[in-house]
Amino acid sequence: MSVKIVVPASSANLGPGFDSLGLAVDRYLTLEVLDDEASKWQIEHDFGPKIPNDERNLIIKAALALEPKLSPKRLKVTSQIPLARGLGSSSSAIVAGLKLAQYFAQTAYTTEDLLQVATKLEGHPDNVAPALLGGLTVSVMLNGRPHSICASFPAEGLLAYIPDFELATKESRQVLPNELSYKTAVRAGSLGNALVAALLTNDLALVKELLEQDLYHEPYRQKLVPHLQLLRKLAHEVNADGTYLSGAGPTVMTLIGPAKMETLIKKARKQGLTGKFIKLEVDTLGARVER
Ligand SMILES: Nc1ncnc2c1ncn2[C@@H]1O[C@H](COP(=O)(O)OP(=O)(O)O)[C@@H](O)[C@H]1O
Ligand SMILES: N[C@@H](CCOP(=O)(O)O)C(=O)O
Description:
Blueprint: E1 4-12, E2 21-35, E3 42-44, H1 58-66, E4 74-79, H2 89-104, H3 111-122, H4 125-133, E5 136-142, E6 145-151, E7 158-162, H5 169-173, H6 182-200, H7 204-211, H8 218-221, H9 227-237, E8 243-245, E9 252-255, H10 258-270, E10 276-280, E11 288-290
Parallel strand pairs: 3-4
Antiparallel strand pairs: 1-2, 1-11, 2-4, 2-5, 5-6, 7-9, 7-10, 8-9
The structure holds adenosine-5'-diphosphate and the ligand N[C@@H](CCOP(=O)(O)O)C(=O)O.
Keywords: Amino-acid biosynthesis, ATP-binding, Cytoplasm, Kinase, Nucleotide-binding, Threonine biosynthesis, Transferase
Function: Catalyzes the ATP-dependent phosphorylation of L-homoserine to L-homoserine phosphate.
GO molecular function, one term: homoserine kinase activity
């Protein structure tokens, strides 16, 4: 029987929810098991020569991190999630590897076990949690372990602008400061708290205000993603529900009803934005195994 693992993309941070908030969206990585008794680990993909086809591949590394004795398999991965664009491709790959190991392991690993290993490999829980659990997740590290609270997301529509260039998360984290002043940290925390409360109480007007007030990362990443300010300005002109940098960028996400999307896209094209616009929906299921 053939086994298929499907993992959604994710959009992290949502403004002031840096390294904590994440949303699963309906673009998918699909991992197929072609042979579960292969002589060596092998993975077919069309991501190009920079992505390994053997044990050095992130998907296989993640599987072996959970279950080092897992027997070699021949795999095939296809993905609708662009690499290094701020839609959590690395987290989806890690979660796919962990779901594979969970499926074939002798040990009964729990979802919490997977979240723990995924967070360790990714370095922060905000993408791996929604990729694993679906929907909106609010995550925190407690005594070295990730805890994620799942919630539903109130927006009517999501429009992602995916620029023509890649931006590795590692590179985009290098421009962040090592420290914030006490005053800024208190303000940044209160913005994040209020955003979560506004999301959980469906207060879209407040969500719109708060999504755009981040003090943790967007001000520092601005220089790497100049289209963020432009899109935010255009989104205001059509009265959209808020715009934020998706993950570490360069993708920019706008909360906007479907009726206004075309107008925003036309305005952006007129201003010379040549990247891809895609309409997204929230994925509420998270990673799953299909037989
Ligand atoms: N399916 C995959 N298989 C192997 N490696 C992957 C896969 N998807 C992503 N990666 C690795 O993760 C990198 C992108 O991760 P990152 O810079 O965090 O960006 P993002 O997660 O926002 O797409 C890729 O350049 C690649 O090295
Ligand atoms: N909180 C992280 C999120 C990175 O998300 P990605 O989709 O760009 O990998 C950050 O902002 O660095």
